[in-house]
Inverse folding.
C-alpha cells in the first residue's frame, strides 16, 4: 500500500491540475465571450477595416480560433512537463 | 470567370463524383473487412482495443466533428451573409479547449466505453446508466435525423439521386462499417474522410486565393466591393445578443457532451494520448473553419450570391459550385464525393455511440447487472447497431423536408445540458450523489427538449404560430445552469455516504489512471485486451 506522503502528493497534484484547467477554461470563456459580446454590441467597431478587406471582426474571429489552439497547447506543455512528471514519480 | 449556373453540372449524374465515391466506398469497405477480422472483443468493437495513436485519434475526432453540415453549411452561410458565418465557426471550435482541460483525461482514466462509465463510477449503476442512456440516445437520434435528412437533400442536389435512394445508400453502407468493423473500421473511415475533406477544402481555397494573389484580404475586399462593406461586419444573425450568447454557450459545452466525441477518448491507450489527440483535433478543426470561411467569400465573389441561392435557398451548394467554377466538373465531382463520404462517416460514428449506450450501459449493466459474457455483449452491440441503422433510414425518410437546423441545435443543447453538467460534477464534487446525477441528466434532457418545443423555431417556423412562449431559439443559456443547479440541490438533499467515501478512489484513478491502484498484479492479457483494474461491475469497497 502507499503511504500518506504519496496521497498528499496526489492531492496536491489533483488540486494543481484543476487550478490550471480552471484558469485556462476561464481564459477561453473570457476570450470567446469577449468576441461574442463585441459582435453583439459593437457592430461598427467589428466592421472597421484595418487594411482594405480585413475588418477587425474577421481578425478577432481568427484570433479567437488561434487563442483556442494556443491555450490547448499551453495545457499540453504543462501537462507533459509538470503533471506527467509527478505522475511518473507517483507510479514508481 | 463566369458567375452563371446555366452550364452547371450540379444535380447531374457526374462521372467523376461517382468514380470517386465508389473508390471511397471500396477502400473503406476493404478497411471494414480488415477491421472485421480484428474485431472479436467488446473492447475492439467499442474502443478499437485502445490501440489508436494520438495523431490518428486527432484526425478521427476532427472527422467526427467536421460534418457535411459544418463544411457546406458554413461555406453557404458565409457566401450568403458574410461575416456571420465566422460566428458559427468560432463557436463550434471553442468547445474543444474546454474538452481538453476538463474532460479528456479524467474520462479516459475513469471509463471504459461510454461517458456513463465515468459518471456511474462511484454511484449506483442502474439509475445513473438508465438516465445517461436516455440523454445519449436522444442526442444520437436527433443528430442522426439531422444528418440523414441533410444527406438526402445534399445528395439529391449533388448527384441527382432521389432523396429516398440517397438515405438508403447512406444507411446501408454505414451499417456495414459499424456492424462488421466496429470502432476500428469507424475510426479509419473517419481518418480517411478527414484527410480527404481537409485536402479537398484546402485545394479549393488555394485555387480561390490564387486568383487574388494568395491574399485573403484582396478576396474579402472584392466581396465588400460587390456586396457592400457590411459583409465584413456582424449582420442580421446577431439581431438578438442573448440569442447569440445562448447559441454560443450550447455550442461550447455541447462539444463536451456529445457521446460520439466522448467515446473517442477510449480508443487511445492512455490519458496522455487522449489529451494530445484533442490538441491535434483543435488545430485541424480551427484550420478547417478558417478555410471554409475563405471558401464562403470565394463563392460569393466567383459564383455570385444569386446563382448560389437559385440552386438552394440555404446556400448549401456554395462550396460545390465554387469547385466547379475554379476547377471544372472534375473538381465538382471530387467535392461532391467527399461531402457524401463525410455524411457516411459521421453517421457511422453516431450509430456506434448509440449502440454502446444500448449494449454497454443498458443491456450489460442494467439488464444483466454486469454479468453478460463477452460474446453476448458483442451480439447485443451488433444487434443494436443494426437497429439504429435501420431506424436512422426510416427516420430520415419520415422527416423528409423538415428543417434540420433545429435538430442539430437540439442535439447540442441536450448534450450540453444532460451530459456535461453530470460529467463535470461527478469528477469535481465529492458530494455528488446518485439522485443528483439522475436529476441533473433528466432535467437537462427534458428541459432542453421542452424549451426547444416552445421556442420560435418550432412554434413560429414549423407550426406557424404568431409568437412563441419561450423567446430563445437555443435554450442552452437556461438549461445548462438549470441542470447544474438541480444536480447540486438534489445532491444536497440526498446525501450518499458511499458515493462521497469513494471520491478519494475516483480522484486517484482520475489522475493516475488504472495502472496505479497499488501493487495490482497485472496478468499478461492478450494484446488489445482491457487494461487491468477497470471494474466491469460496481466494486464493493
Amino acid at each position: 500500500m502507499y503511504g500518506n506522503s504519496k496521497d498528499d502528493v496526489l492531492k496536491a497534484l489533483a488540486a494543481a491540475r484543476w487550478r490550471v484547467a480552471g484558469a485556462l477554461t476561464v481564459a477561453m470563456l473570457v476570450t470567446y465571450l469577449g468576441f461574442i459580446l463585441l459582435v453583439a454590441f459593437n457592430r461598427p467597431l467589428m466592421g472597421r477595416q484595418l487594411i482594405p478587406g480585413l475588418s477587425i471582426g474577421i481578425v478577432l474571429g481568427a484570433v479567437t480560433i488561434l487563442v483556442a489552439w494556443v491555450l490547448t497547447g499551453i495545457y499540453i506543455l504543462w501537462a507533459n512537463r509538470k503533471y506527467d512528471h509527478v505522475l511518473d514519480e507517483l507510479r514508481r | 470567370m463566369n458567375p452563371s449556373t446555366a452550364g452547371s453540372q450540379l444535380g447531374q449524374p457526374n462521372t467523376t463524383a461517382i468514380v470517386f465515391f465508389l473508390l471511397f466506398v471500396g477502400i473503406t469497405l476493404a478497411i471494414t473487412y480488415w477491421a472485421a477480422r480484428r474485431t472479436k472483443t467488446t473492447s475492439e468493437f467499442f474502443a478499437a482495443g485502445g490501440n489508436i495513436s494520438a495523431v490518428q485519434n486527432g484526425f478521427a475526432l476532427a472527422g467526427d466533428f467536421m460534418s457535411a453540415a459544418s463544411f457546406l453549411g458554413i461555406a453557404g452561410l458565409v457566401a450568403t451573409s458574410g461575416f456571420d458565418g465566422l460566428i458559427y465557426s468560432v463557436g463550434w471550435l471553442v468547445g474543444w479547449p474546454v474538452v481538453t482541460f476538463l474532460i479528456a483525461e479524467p474520462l479516459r482514466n475513469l471509463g471504459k466505453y461510454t461517458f456513463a462509465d465515468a459518471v456511474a463510477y462511484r454511484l449506483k449503476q442502474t439509475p445513473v446508466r438508465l438516465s445517461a442512456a436516455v440523454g445519449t440516445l436522444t442526442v444520437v437520434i436527433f443528430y442522426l435525423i439531422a444528418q440523414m435528412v441533410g444527406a438526402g437533400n445534399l445528395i439529391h442536389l449533388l448527384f441527382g439521386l432521389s432523396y429516398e435512394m440517397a438515405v438508403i445508400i447512406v444507411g446501408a453502407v454505414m451499417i456495414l462499417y459499424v456492424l462488421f468493423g466496429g470502432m476500428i473500421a469507424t475510426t479509419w473511415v473517419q481518418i480517411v474522410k478527414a484527410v480527404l475533406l481537409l485536402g479537398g477544402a484546402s485545394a479549393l481555397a488555394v485555387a480561390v486565393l490564387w486568383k487574388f494573389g494568395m491574399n485573403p484580404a484582396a478576396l474579402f475586399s472584392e466581396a465588400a466591393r460587390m456586396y457592400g462593406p457590411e459583409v465584413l461586419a456582424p449582420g442580421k444573425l446577431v439581431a438578438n445578443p442573448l440569442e447569440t450568447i445562448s447559441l454560443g454557450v450550447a455550442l461550447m459545452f455541447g462539444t463536451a457532451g456529445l457521446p460520439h466525441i466522448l467515446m473517442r477518448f477510449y480508443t487511445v491507450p492512455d490519458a496522455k494520448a487522449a489529451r494530445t489527440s484533442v490538441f491535434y483535433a483543435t488545430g485541424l478543426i480551427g484550420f478547417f473553419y478558417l478555410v471554409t470561411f475563405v471558401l464562403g467569400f470565394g463563392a460569393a465573389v466567383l459564383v455570385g450570391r444569386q446563382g448560389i441561392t437559385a440552386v438552394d435557398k440555404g446556400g448549401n451548394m456554395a462550396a460545390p459550385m465554387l469547385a466547379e467554377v475554379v476547377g471544372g466538373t472534375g473538381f465538382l465531382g471530387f467535392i461532391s464525393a467527399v461531402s457524401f463520404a463525410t455524411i457516411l462517416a459521421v453517421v457511422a460514428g453516431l450509430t456506434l455511440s448509440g449502440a454502446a449506450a444500448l449494449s454497454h450501459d443498458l443491456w450489460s449493466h442494467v439488464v444483466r447487472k454486469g454479468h453478460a459474457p463477452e460474446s453476448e455483449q458483442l451480439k447485443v452491440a451488433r444487434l443494436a447497431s443494426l437497429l439504429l441503422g435501420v431506424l436512422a433510414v426510416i427516420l430520415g425518410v419520415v422527416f423528409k423536408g423538415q428543417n434540420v437546423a433545429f435538430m442539430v441545435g437540439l442535439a447540442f443543447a441536450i448534450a450540453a445540458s444532460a451530459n456535461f453538467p453530470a460529467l463535470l460534477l461527478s469528477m469535481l464534487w465529492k458530494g455528488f450523489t446518485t439522485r443528483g446525477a439522475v436529476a441533473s441528466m433528466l432535467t437537462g434532457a427534458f428541459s432542453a427538449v421542452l424549451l426547444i418545443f416552445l421556442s420560435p423555431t418550432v412554434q413560429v417556423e414549423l407550426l406557424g404560430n404568431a409568437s412563441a412562449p419561450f423567446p430563445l431559439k437555443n435554450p442552452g443559456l437556461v438549461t445548462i445552469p438549470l441542470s447544474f443547479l438541480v444536480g447540486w440541490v438534489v445532491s444536497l438533499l440526498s446525501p450518499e455516504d458511499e458515493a462521497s467515501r469513494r471520491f478519494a478512489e475516483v480522484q486517484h484513478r482520475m489522475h493516475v489512471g488504472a495502472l496505479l491502484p497499488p501493487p495490482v498484479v497485472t496478468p499478461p492479457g492478450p494484446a488489445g485486451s482491457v487494461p487491468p483494474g477497470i471494474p466491469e461491475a460496481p466494486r464493493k469497497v
The first strand of chain A starts at residue 49 and ends at 51. The mean pLDDT of chain A is 88.
